[in-house]
Amino acid sequence: MAVVHEEVGHVEHAPPPAPRTGWRRWTAGGWLRTAWLVPLAFILTPVLVLAARHGLGYPSSPFSVLNPLDDSGLNEDFWQFAQPDLQPLITVWTVLVPVAFLVGIGGFDYWSYWISGRPTRPEDHSGHGARRWQDYFRVNTDHKVIGIQYLVTTIFFFIAGGLMAMFMRAELAQPGMQYVDPQGFNGLFSVHASLMIFLFIIPAFAGIGNYVIPLMIGAPDMAFPRLNALSFWLLPIAGLMMMSSYLVGPFAAGWTNYVPLAVQQPEGNLMFQMGVQWAGASSIMTALNFLVTIITMRAPGMSFWRLPLLVWANFATSTLVVIATPFIAGSQFFILFDRVLHTNFFDFAEGGYAIGYQHIFWFYSHPAVYIMMLPGFGIASEVISVFARKPIFGYRLMALSLMAILILGFSVWAHHMFVSGMASWLRVPMMVTTMIIAVPTGIKVFSWLATLWEGRIHFKTPMLFGLGFVSMFVIGGLSGIYLGSVPIDIHASDTYFVVAHIHYVLFGGSLFTIFAGLYYWFPKMTGRMYNETLGKVHFWMTFIGFNVTFFPMHWIGSQGMPRRVADYDPMFANWNLAISIASFFLGASTLVFLYNLIVSWRRGEPAPSNPWRALTLEWQVSSPPPIFNFDAIPQVVGSPYEYGVRGARHAVMNGKPVEEGRKPAPMEETVP
Amino acid sequence: MVVIGTVAGIATGGIAYFIPWLPDQASREASKIDGVYWFVTIVCALIFALVAGVSLYAGWKFRAPPDDMDDGSPIHGHTGLEITWTAIPAALVIAMSVFSGVVLAQVEDIPDDHRVVRVTGQQFAWKFTYPDLDRTTGELVLEVNRPVRLVLTAEDVIHSFWVPEFRMKQDAVPGVETRTVVTPTKTGTYPVVCTELCGLGHATMRSWARVLSAEDYERWAAEAAEQAGGQTQTGETETGETTTGEEGGGG
Amino acid sequence: MATAAHAHEHPPPANASSRVDARLLGIYIFIASEVMLFGSFFTAYFFARVVVQNETWPPEGFELPVYLALVNTIILVTSSFTMHWALQSIKRNYRAGLVAGLTLTFLLGLTFLLIQIREYTRIGFAPNDLAFGSTFYGLTGLHGAHVFVGLNLLAYALIRAVRGHYGPKEHEHLGVEIPGIYWHFVDVMWIVVYVTVYVV
Ligand code: HEA
Ligand code: HEA
Ligand code: CUA
Ligand SMILES: [Cu+2]
User: Fold this and answer.
1) How far is CA A290 from CA A297, A587, C13, in A?
2) Using the 8-state DSSP alphabet, how is residue C48 labeled?
3) pLDDT band at C1 (very low <50, low <70, confident <90, very high)
4) A503 alpha carbon – ligand 2 mean position (Å)
5) β-strands B206-212, B140-143: how paired?
6) What's the pTM?
């Protein structure tokens, strides 16, 4: 919201304030201030809650809130807090503590100056760019720093979520219960999925977009740098909140968190609801930022039909985020109210409608799956075109199909509910729209293939992941077609067939493109080359491990193994053992990736500005780019994909034309 | 090249056919649904074979030597091709939708000689009530070749009734009456599985569906009749209370 | 961290590739998102009212103070006009009008909020009385929260106005225009809520 206070080019700057000294350092925005604000908020919360309860005449001795034996029961007043448990406290904690954190690190400083009408800090961009590693650990308004902050954070949550998956596979390796109790298992896959979706895939794409988009469109930064910084800092909050649900018993109703089960669950469920709110706020703000940046800050000559497809993809995605995300916010608010205020949005006994929750949830969460895929389509388009040394095939149709998916994506949500008992007339229309989405997606797939045709393909790691993505995503998409057909879904719904689908589209689709993007832009982001051999090793280990892990799930699913079970019919024992072993191999492949990342970042050999001989703008500046991206805004004169077209130009940088096939450094030199 | 695709596709399809993908068919619906399943499988196998074939072929044919500095031929698009690969998938999905739609209608139409069984899910067990016998059991007992209409509801949270061999699945929602229909065609005992996460006991919320031959069923019904007195109330009250919501209709 | 070295470092001015001002576009997109948030609440309302068949709506024993709410509606609508006046004034560089307009808008909004709270405490049913109560408090409460945010924005604009910021030029009064846009949105949203919840 605070975005509206931005007044760029507003001349009312005071001279830079002298850096605070002595005890006043504790009041300056930063970790010191956070260090005392957060505990303060934590302690203040119970005080406030108890005071409120006292003031409103509810039993307000600490025990009445904490002690489960208290039975002051429900009374009909609408200030009534849920009784008798920690829920009021947790709810207020999950609001106040994060706010304290954000205030502490200084996320609101500029705005607080602005709104109070005091002269704002000078725009000397001291909060801009990274000159020392410490600069990555404070509120930083440089989109490149934020991009890297995003990626590092999300990879952390990927590891966390992945390790939970490892525990699940260990438990599932044999029938019967071995390591965790059922509730614990339900917690594992719920947190696993939530971390992977809300704190890995979605924000990882936001991170790549953050780093690359302004460079690609020839902008010095995002439209709202401070909002951008703020959106990042909401992420660790959301993630830690979801993980800390383990302190009060993890939320265990699945990432879909269906009611009425969600209302029955222990307090940990609140952490999911609030975590989703913070993560959602973050992605809405980022999406808004992307949209405004793409619309208002393109370099001269960068018409929409000259945008790189990654930018198109993020344009579509951001639109989806802005329109759809409020619905999951709503759905989780309702559960929160049902739990804490004892409202009856979904309680049938009181006139609520349980299936209503599913409609609201899926109205977000189906578009969400395209939020998790479209940016990947963009990355794939960049990578495939560059490494096939060919213009992307059917550029305009590629862009338009993104838009088609965007629109169709809103008309299919009920395909998650074919057996839910919703209005049965809704199923066939939704089946048709669901299937039709195959058409625009197919256009993209076939265009990628056609881009390969008569190209000169270099199988660098990004390209391997790019091509791996195409084939794996097609498998996932096709299994989606199975599920889209109502009769088949009646059989396959909520079985491991769906789990297979999930991972083929999310891992084989989204994650493969994220890997491709990370390797592709690694030289640009770090100024160093990654280790090609290790990269290839990582790809093949992942590719094999992935297929052996997830393909058999189609079979065990079709044969009758339901999903979300900690224990299963012994007839599936062999397959599950095989799957578990493969999944550990898959997990190990991630170690190679992490090793490559860290080591290359520290002592990989220096990267030239344009190791891939790409035409898009981000490769025309040094690696890593200067703090303000460009000394002068480039002039765009043509399409970004004109490989092999003699004399074609994409842009003019500081007077120097960017020629097709510009070769500052031949490939073999740049690749260890 | 499309040829390569087709051949490979048929091959994969063939292989796929011999892997035991689906449990055996124990209901009229099962065979119909499997029909769709295999139709979709063949379409998808073809498509995947095409995609995989093309990318492998391209990867092998157009691979560039590492030091290669040239670019590929600047093809920007080809309207003909683009129309083709918009039209054909469109046709295919329409075909699949129509087929699915028809089968859906078939498996869901209710012959008038059907019986009714009320199914109630609760954490973590199934309850089956036979209004005509006024009896309640923990296992579903059905007569072979006799369509039965299942009227489902739940007492606490959402559960989902599934018998893999029947291919039919339907959520049981508190406060809502949902419906499905099966016509068992094979005598035998099949697992009843709960497929909607319903808490701690979800994994173990299982029961059995016993499909009896006509005479066995008569015998069972008879003994049901005499034991009825003892058995009734449980089922009666449960279903009586829990179906207070409205029908599954609506948005 | 502001080292003198970078004190005067500035990025190259970005190219303006659209006639729309970034901040205006921003608030419009944000409002689109807000509309969808209300959308989700209206959906819940729809389920409780239409999908679950009720014999009467509101269920018997419940009634809504339609006329009080009407008064409230009128108050809020008026505040939109005063807001508009404030903006027009600063465009003509008539500062007194700006301050007066903002103050009036703020006070009207505040009255609205107070009346609504009063309504809550007197209305005789609670959010946990049937889905009816839940959806009623849901929608009106969500809107109330937006009024509250709007009031904050107005307050900020007011403070700055009093301290002599803003001017007649395009980019000089965005700080008034944008809260204004948001306020009008809150206003229109209330009319929708009022009509659905109280009238229909
Ligand atoms: C990245 C995420 C992603 C993506 C892109 C998709 C894409 C699709 N999904 Fe998937 N889906 C999920 C993530 C995703 N899904 C998740 C996470 C769930 C589980 C949620 C839960 O936990 O319950 C789910 C569940 C899910 C269900 C519900 C299953 C159930 O619970 O019963 C259905 C049912 O219709 C479905 C369908 C589809 C379809 C038709 C597509 C289509 O968009 C696919 C289109 C692509 C292709 C078809 C391949 C390429 C096309 C061609 C090569 C052209 C030729 C093809 C034909 C002619 C067919 N998905
Ligand atoms: C982007 C999304 C994403 C990703 C990447 C993954 C990755 C993985 N998933 Fe997940 N999964 C989902 C999204 C995702 N999943 C969703 C949405 C569900 C549905 C949940 C629900 O039903 O509500 C689900 C559910 C799900 C299930 C079904 C649970 C159930 O229904 O009972 C299983 C079971 O095998 C599973 C396994 C795995 C495995 C083995 C990986 C592996 O790929 C993980 C590999 C990564 C690591 C292992 C971490 C990093 C590695 C190291 C740090 C090395 C050290 C570790 C070892 C060597 C052991 N997932
Ligand atoms: Cu009942 Cu799962
Ligand atoms: Cu979907």
Assistant:
1) 10, 33, 18
2) I
3) very low
4) 8
5) parallel
6) 0.91
CB-based contact, C163 to chain A, within 8 Å? yes
Sign of CA dihedral B198, B199, B203, B204: negative
pLDDT score, position B90:
96
What pLDDT, on a 0 to 100 scale, did the predictor assign at position B212?
93
Q: How far is CA C47 from CA A329, A350, A479, B243, C131, in A?
A: 17, 13, 32, 18, 9
Report the alpha-carbon distance of residue A444 to residue A396 in Å, rounded. Answer: 11
- Distance of CA A410 from the midpoint of ligand 4 (Å): 10
Span between the terminal Cα atoms of chain C, in Å: 59
Q: Do C47 and B250 touch (CB under 8 A)?
A: yes
The residue nearest atom 1 of ligand 3, judged by CA position, is: B159
Distance A109 CA to ligand 2 centre (A): 39
Residue C6 has pLDDT above 60, yes or no: no
Query: Across-strand partners of B118?
Result: B129, B151
Q: Could you tell me where the beta strands, DSSP code E, fall in A457-596? A: none
Neighbours of chain C (3+ CB pairs under 8 A): A, B
Does ligand 1 have an atom closer than 6 angstroms to the CB of A415? yes
Picking from A51-60, A185-194, B68-77, B236-245, which range would have the lowest pLDDT averaged per residue? B236-245
Whole-angstrom CA distances from A222 to A6, A46, A282, A418, C11 are 13, 39, 15, 42, 12
Q: Give the side-chain half-sphere CA count within 13 A for C195.
A: 5
Cα(C181)–Cα(C26) distance, integer angstroms: 11
Q: How far apart are CA A345 and CA A354, in angstroms?
A: 8
Supply the residue whose CA is at minimum distance from atom 33 of ligand 1.
Answer: A483
Count H helices and E strands in chain C, helices first: 5, 0
Residues around the ion ligand 4 (C-beta < 5 A) = A 366
Asked if the Cβ–Cβ distance from A422 to B250 is below 8 Å, we say yes
Can you read off the two tokens belonging to residue A467? 């091509």
Give the pLDDT of residue A331: 94
Three-state secondary-structure class, residue A671: coil
Interface test with B, best of C45, C46, C52, C130 (most B CBs within 10 A): C52
Residues in chain B within 8 Å Cβ distance of C46? 251
Confidence of residue B233 (pLDDT cuts 50, 70, 90): very low
Mean pLDDT of A96-107: 89
A579-593, A606-620, A638-652, range with the lowest pLDDT: A638-652
* Ligand 2 proximity of A254 Cβ (cutoff 6 Å): yes
Share of chain A above pLDDT 90, in %: 63
pLDDT digits (tens, 9 = 90+) for A383-439: 999 999 999 999 999 999 999 999 999 999 999 999 998 988 999 999 999 999 999
From the CA of A489, the nearest ligand is 1
- Mean of the per-residue pLDDT values for chain B? 83
d(CA A172, CA A184): 13
Q: How close A132 comes to chain C (CA, Å)?
A: 11
Number of the ligand 3 atom closest to the C-alpha atom of B198 = 2
Q: Is A505 in the pocket of ligand 1 (CB under 6 A)?
A: yes
* Confidence class for position A291, pLDDT limits 50, 70, 90: very high
Query: In this predicted model, which residue has the larger pLDDT, A209 or A52?
Result: A209
Question: What residues contact C128, with CB distance under 8 A and at least 6 apart?
Answer: A74, A76, A78, A80, A341, A342, A343, A344, A350, C134
Neighbours of chain B (3+ CB pairs under 8 A): A, C
What's the mean pLDDT in B197-216? 92
Q: What are the pLDDT digits (tens) for C41-89?
A: 999 999 998 888 778 888 888 888 888 999 999 999 999 999 999 999 9
**What is the SS3 assignment for B33?**
helix
Residues lining ligand 3, Cβ inside 6 A:
B 121, 124, 159, 194, 196-198, 202, 205
Half-sphere exposure of A579 (CA within 13 A, CB side): 27
